[in-house]
Specification:
The chain has one domain. It contains twelve helices and no strands. The two termini are about 25 Å apart.
């Protein structure tokens, strides 16, 4: 691998680890970079999934204070996320590679729309939080399971989906605590999918390692200082990179 390619993949890993911790769309950074350097779409996806797992761990450690008192909630939702991640990973490996290439552009479009409307989602969640009280029910569990399937199959903007689901299900909870829960659940999806990919798919290990090291740094930085980044600039970068990925796939 040329040094410039390695540096770009590492930098993308740093950005993705930070973005996943803050919002949840880091795949829209790393996946297009791998595509640009000639990796096949499915190989890029599974290598990216494996590489981002350590960043999720780093982000969860950084949010450990916000996770205090949420043990029962984490365990309850983790069951749904883990099961969904397994189903999504199996679907990715079972369906033909051509299906992934055809489906993913639509997923990226959905992810980009979610990123663009994320401020409106946040305001709606905040308004609901001040008006209502509620507890996660069966519908929330099903929604988290479905998000896990999506995350195991591809994963871009999985975090934004989880934030919306959890924010609506836990309207009285502080948003930072909800985000901490999101980091754990999205990380679990990547973990179980990654384990399946390690034993059942071809992984570009050097690229995955570069993403892993970068994502750890990004997760640590984001959990400590990343909240200071201007959100509009961050969304603009993700949208540009996502559009680039669509063009590359098509």
């Amino acid at each position: 691998m040329p040094p410039l390619h390695a540096l770009a993949i590492f930098a993308a890993g740093v950005a993705a680890g930070g973005i996943n911790t803050l919002v949840g769309s880091g795949t829209l950074i790393t996946f297009p970079v791998l595509l640009a350097f000639g990796y096949a779409p499915v190989t890029a996806n599974v290598s990216n999934t494996v590489g981002l797992v350590p960043g999720s761990v780093a982000g969860a450690i950084g949010y450990r204070r916000e996770l205090e008192g949420q043990r029962a909630r984490v365990l309850r939702f983790a069951t749904a996320s883990t099961a969904g991640g397994v189903v999504g990973a199996v679907l990715l490996l079972s369906l033909p590679a051509s299906a992934f290439k055809d489906i993913v552009p639509a997923f990226i479009v959905i992810a980009l729309v979610l990123i663009v409307v994320q401020p409106q989602i946040g305001r709606a969640l905040e308004a609901r939080r001040t008006r209502t009280r509620g507890h996660p029910g069966a519908l929330a569990m099903v929604a988290v399971f479905a998000t896990g399937i999506y995350g195991g199959y591809f994963g871009a903007a999985q975090g934004i989906m989880l934030l919306a689901i959890l924010g609506l299900s836990l309207p009285t909870e502080d948003l930072q605590r909800v985000n901490a829960l999101k980091v754990v659940l999205a990380g679990l999806v990547n973990l179980v999918a990654g384990i399946i990919f390690v034993f059942s798919s071809h992984i570009a290990w050097l690229a995955a390692l570069l993403i892993a090291v970068g994502s750890i740094i990004g997760g640590i930085v984001a959990s400590r200082w990343g909240r200071r980044l201007p959100a509009p600039a961050l969304r603009a970068v993700i949208v540009i990179v996502g559009i680039t990925a669509i063009v590359r796939l098509l």
